[in-house]
Design brief:
Distance between the termini: 67 Å
Number of domains: 2
Bound molecules: s-citryldethia Coenzyme A
Structural class: mainly alpha
Number of strands: 5
Oligomer: single chain
Strand order of the largest sheet: 3-4-5
CATH architecture of the largest domain: Orthogonal Bundle
Helix content: 40-55%
Largest sheet: 3 strands, antiparallel
CATH class of the largest domain: Mainly Alpha
Order of helices and strands: EEEEEHHHHHHHHHHHHHHHHH
Strand content: 5-15%
Radius of gyration: 24 Å
Length: 420
């Protein structure tokens, strides 16, 4: 029977240490005992970008990057996309189980009764330029929303967390729609009582009641596909900021900021720019040559965890076909499909495990649904909100957690005499 210990020898002192291994990991703090002398601070682990460091124990989302597996609370993303609604997935992420009929009805009612924005919030919006990036607008509105919820700072009170999780999820589509209508100079529209969560969102976007049910279902599935993804950059921001026990609106604002980056949720916007820049199938080889020369990135490709096809990308490709039957095929689709075909056959991309990720095809659908590229990441944020909030709630309840405060390797000057 192998022992669950890592036996190490510190070559600097010849001392040996037995570090317990639990859940496939060692405690980084167990390294600190390895000192060269009693004054020595002890050994640290250096891991920029946390490429091989766990930050928490979580029971929410499981990913196997080699096998392309993604599960929310143990249910496969394929089953959830096909058989569950986004509101059921919100409940599942937050509560650990799929809701029964009564729980789902109560959840819908909880969100509908909170689906209204404080009047002053739209005045904040009016103060922003119409061409402000929609993710900047969303960030401002989310932080401002916190200003109307002073009690939300009592994060150790489970009832307070439950209330503000409901408010943020109820109001996220309203913030997103308000940003969309502000950008277009259109009058704001309130959600309609009795209309579903996703349908109301699209009603407020399109400004009409007769939204095509194919588009409603497609958006519902897209929101589910984006709902959580374990410790991605924006969730790490949610947890890092949340570890100081600030309110969930401030944490969500930080998560929105992280998501807006082009390497993360902002990639869906960059994919459309890339496809438009390529312009035609004939130009794909010269573009890929630029990528191999490191003069461009293949946006929508690659992933820190998936070293095989992102399971969400497969589902999105199916949704694209259903949406294009309603909206007409996106002219950039041909370039995207050919780009994927060539990239998946070339050693440069195969050697680096570069496959399409969730952002590669989603933007084509969003554009065909009438959204402009700068708004795509707002749609990602509406989907990811239940993931951020379930991870935040888990953080606050986790006895192992305390304020996040990494160490550093200091490379600067020391103890310099002041020059005058
Ligand atoms: C999301 O983490 C999550 O879960 C995120 C997400 C979620 O749901 O929350 O899944 C959502 O953010 C998806 C990713 C969206 N981003 C993009 O599509 C942007 C393009 N992708 C890359 O920037 C990159 O693939 C990352 C940022 C996604 C991952 O980068 P890593 O893990 O840091 O990988 P790396 O930069 O170390 O790359 C390893 C090699 C390098 O080449 P070499 O130095 O070995 O020669 O692969 C190359 C990189 O240059 N590479 C790419 C590439 N991605 C990696 N080369 C060209 N195009 C790319 N897209």
């Amino acid at each position: 029977m192998s022992d669950q210990k890592l036996h190490v020898t510190d070559g600097r002192t010849g001392k040996t240490y037995d570090l317990p291994i639990t859940d496939g990991s060692i405690k980084a703090m167990d390294l600190r005992q390895m000192q060269t002398d009693p004054e020595d601070f002890g050994l640290l682990a250096h891991d920029p970008a946390f490429t091989n460091t766990t930050s928490c124990r979580s029971a929410i989302t499981y990913i196997d990057g080699d096998r392309g597996i993604l599960e929310y609370r143990g249910y496969s993303i394929a089953d959830l996309a096909e058989k569950a609604s986004f509101l059921e997935v919100q409940w599942l992420l937050l509560n650990g189980e799929l809701p029964d009929a009564a729980q789902l009805a109560s959840w819908k009612s909880d969100l509908a009764s909170r689906a209204h924005l404080p009047a002053g919030l739209l005045d904040v919006l009016q103060g922003l330029p119409k061409d402000a990036h929609p993710m900047s607008v969303l960030m401002v509105l989310m932080a401002a929303l916190g200003g109307y919820s002073a009690d939300s700072r009592n994060v150790r009170d489970a009832k307070v967390r439950a209330e503000h999780i409901r408010r943020i999820l109820a109001q996220m589509p309203l913030l997103a729609a308000a940003a969309w209508r502000h950008r277009r100079g259109h009058a704001q529209i309130a959600p309609k009582p009795g209309v579903g969560y996703v349908e109301n969102f699209l009603r407020m976007i399109y400004g009409r009641d007769d939204v095509n049910p194919v588009l409603i279902r497609a958006m519902d599935v897209l929101l589910t596909l984006h709902a959580d993804h374990e410790q991605n950059c924006s969730t790490a921001a949610m947890r890092g900021v949340g570890s100081s026990e600030c309110d969930p609106y401030s944490c969500s604002g930080a998560a929105i900021a992280a998501l807006s980056g082009p390497l993360h949720g902002g990639a869906n916007e960059e994919v459309l720019r890339m496809l438009a820049e390529i312009g035609s199938v004939e130009h794909i080889p010269s573009f890929l040559a630029k990528v191999k020369d490191k003069k461009a990135k293949l946006m929508g490709f690659g992933h820190r965890v998936y070293k095989s096809y992102d399971p969400r990308a497969k589902i999105i490709a199916r949704i694209a076909k259903e949406v294009f039957e309603v909206t007409g095929k996106n002219p950039l689709l041909e370039i995207a499909v050919e780009l994927e075909r060539i990239a998946l056959s070339e050693p440069y991309f195969i050697e680096r495990n570069l496959y399409p990720n969730v952002d590669f095809y989603s933007g084509l659908i969003y554009q065909s649904m009438g959204f402009d590229p700068s708004y795509f990441t707002v749609l990602f944020a509406v989907g990811r909100a239940p993931g951020w909030l379930s991870q935040w709630d888990e953080l606050i309840r986790d006895p192992e957690q305390k304020i996040a405060r990494p160490r550093q390797i200091y490379t600067g000057h020391r103890a310099r005499p002041f020059p005058r």
